[in-house]
């Protein structure tokens, strides 16, 4: 089959038939049961390789009494213990800098990257030349599926230091034969400069976070430029929810007159586009022949049936330097197996990834996701584009307050319009979330915008509890 080998060794000159919507037709459209059989065989190869090359996996699987050759079905694979971020950090602390799950000699490392988080010990990625090529090929293949083609300009509008997202998009664009523009983000004044460059270059593809695409559109308008003038065909997003949230996706599609594609999983899992929509299919397809994804019950780490919710657990089928085998994400999503409009036979996350389970909070027994609040606000005319979510404990129960900006037009219409909007927001939040939120409307541009991932939740409960403990309460 089309270049499905382990270790992978992609032909750098390969391109599909220009009229084909698929990069690898057979791999993308095969009978899913047949694919599952091939995945099981590949899992055995990857596990045997990881066992031979890494004390980390040897220890883990010896303790669990599991051997690669015992994996005969996908159900057998569910017995393999999961890998957590914490374990990776510990492995790197004990075996610096890349951990004892590095499966190639350090001399093979071609690129060093790292996690973008600001708290705790960061994780280092040591990526071999072979893996770098594999990542580029995988991303090019998925970007082909989004409708991008050789010769297109791809504008990377995301931070190019400690963020794998930008690098994956960049090397995918290069392998696809695009004109890759590693513009970046995050420096002072850079968004206004992006507006100028976008107007000059008219890229077919733009990569960023959804929050930053909204910010960029605001700045374009301030500069007197209609974002449609950029001529973008495809906006592909990763890093946070948004690309599969209808109100946000439709708003961005409308602003830019372009198609939005949601993609992205975790930096450890690069090629992170292995969960990605396509030109004709919304939500995220799970490109199972690249990274095998299980949506699992977070308590048992076993797959839930299609149609149900769980946390994604990822297994690299094509990485050899730091392969992740059953890495648990801690995110929440639900998956389905249906006919996809693009003809690919992969399972799909119709609403994308909702967010991290840790980010979910409970208000009077209801589970609430920050992304659900963003979804409601973005769907309401008059919303000014930013908000904050405040969780506090007034009495014995957690309380939810939302501070939401109104837009300039509502401001111009006077205090009654603002009040009416606040009532609409409150009613809509209570209808969708099932709990009452106290809503405070605030002036346009009250909150700073992000050029990365949005951080909107202010959790006052710990403060409240620590005060209470001090009082002996
Ligand atoms: N996360 C990432 N992509 C997401 C998406 N499309 N929808 C919802 N949540 C998403 C390098 C890539 O951009 C992936 C990435 O952002 O990796 P990070 O920085 O390691 O962050 C991973 C987390 O971002 C995931 O666990 C999701 O919570 C979120």
From TrEMBL:
<dbReference type="InterPro" id="IPR045851">
    <property type="entry name" value="AMP-bd_C_sf"/>
</dbReference>
<dbReference type="InterPro" id="IPR028154">
    <property type="entry name" value="AMP-dep_Lig_C"/>
</dbReference>
<keyword id="KW-0436">Ligase</keyword>
<dbReference type="Pfam" id="PF14535">
    <property type="entry name" value="AMP-binding_C_2"/>
</dbReference>
<dbReference type="GO" id="GO:0016874">
    <property type="term" value="F:ligase activity"/>
</dbReference>
<dbReference type="InterPro" id="IPR042099">
    <property type="entry name" value="ANL_N_sf"/>
</dbReference>
<dbReference type="Pfam" id="PF00501">
    <property type="entry name" value="AMP-binding"/>
</dbReference>
<dbReference type="InterPro" id="IPR000873">
    <property type="entry name" value="AMP-dep_synth/lig_dom"/>
</dbReference>
<protein>
    <submittedName>
        <fullName>Phenylacetate--CoA ligase</fullName>
    </submittedName>
</protein>
<feature type="domain" description="AMP-dependent synthetase/ligase">
    <location>
        <begin position="84"/>
        <end position="310"/>
    </location>
</feature>
<feature type="domain" description="AMP-dependent ligase C-terminal">
    <location>
        <begin position="365"/>
        <end position="461"/>
    </location>
</feature>
């Amino acid at each position: 089959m089309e270049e499905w080998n382990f270790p992978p060794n992609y032909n750098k000159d390969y391109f599909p038939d220009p009229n084909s919507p698929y990069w690898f037709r057979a791999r993308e459209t095969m009978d899913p049961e047949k694919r599952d059989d091939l995945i099981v065989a590949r899992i055995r190869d990857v596990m045997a390789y990881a066992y031979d090359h890494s004390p980390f996996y040897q220890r883990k699987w010896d303790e669990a009494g599991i051997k690669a050759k015992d994996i005969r079905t996908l159900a057998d694979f569910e017995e393999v213990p999961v890998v957590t971020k914490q374990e990776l950090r510990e492995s790197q602390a004990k075996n610096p800098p890349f951990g004892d799950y590095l499966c190639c000699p350090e001399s093979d490392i071609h690129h060093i990257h790292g996690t973008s988080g600001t708290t705790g010990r960061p994780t280092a990625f040591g990526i071999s030349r072979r893996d770098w090529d594999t990542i580029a090929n995988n991303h090019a293949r998925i970007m082909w599926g989004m409708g991008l083609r050789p010769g297109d300009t791809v504008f990377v509008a995301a931070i190019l230091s400690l963020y794998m997202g930008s690098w994956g998009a960049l090397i995918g664009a290069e392998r696809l034969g695009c004109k890759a523009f590693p513009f970046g983000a995050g420096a002072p004044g850079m968004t206004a400069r992006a507006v100028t460059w976008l107007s000059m270059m008219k890229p077919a593809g733009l990569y960023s976070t959804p929050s930053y695409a909204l910010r960029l559109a605001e700045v374009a308008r301030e500069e007197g430029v209609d974002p449609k003038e950029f001529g973008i065909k495809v906006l592909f997003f990763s890093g946070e929810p948004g690309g599969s949230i209808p109100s946000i996706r439709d708003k961005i599609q409308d602003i830019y007159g372009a198609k939005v594609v949601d993609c992205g999983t975790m930096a450890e899992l690069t090629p992170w586009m292995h969960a990605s929509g396509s030109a004709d299919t919304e939500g995220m397809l799970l490109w199972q022949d690249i990274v095998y994804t299980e949506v699992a019950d977070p308590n048992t780490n076993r797959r839930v049936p299609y149609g149900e919710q769980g946390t994604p657990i990822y297994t690299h089928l094509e990485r050899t330097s730091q392969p992740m085998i059953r890495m648990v994400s801690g995110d929440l999503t639900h998956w389905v197996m249906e006919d996809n409009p693009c003809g690919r036979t992969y399972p799909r996350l119709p609403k994308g990834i909702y967010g991290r389970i840790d980010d979910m909070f409970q208000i009077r027994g209801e589970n609430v996701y920050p992304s659900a609040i963003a979804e409601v606000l973005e769907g309401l005319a008059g919303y000014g584009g930013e908000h904050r979510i405040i969780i506090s404990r007034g009495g014995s129960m957690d309380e939810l307050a939302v501070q939401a900006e109104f837009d300039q037009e509502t401001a111009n219409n006077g205090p009654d319009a603002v009040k009416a909007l606040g009532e609409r927001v409150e009613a809509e939040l209570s209808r969708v979330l099932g709990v009452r939120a106290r809503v405070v409307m605030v002036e346009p541009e009250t909150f700073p915008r992000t050029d990365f991932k949005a951080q909107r939740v202010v959790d006052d409960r710990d403060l409240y509890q620590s005060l209470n403990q001090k009082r002996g309460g």
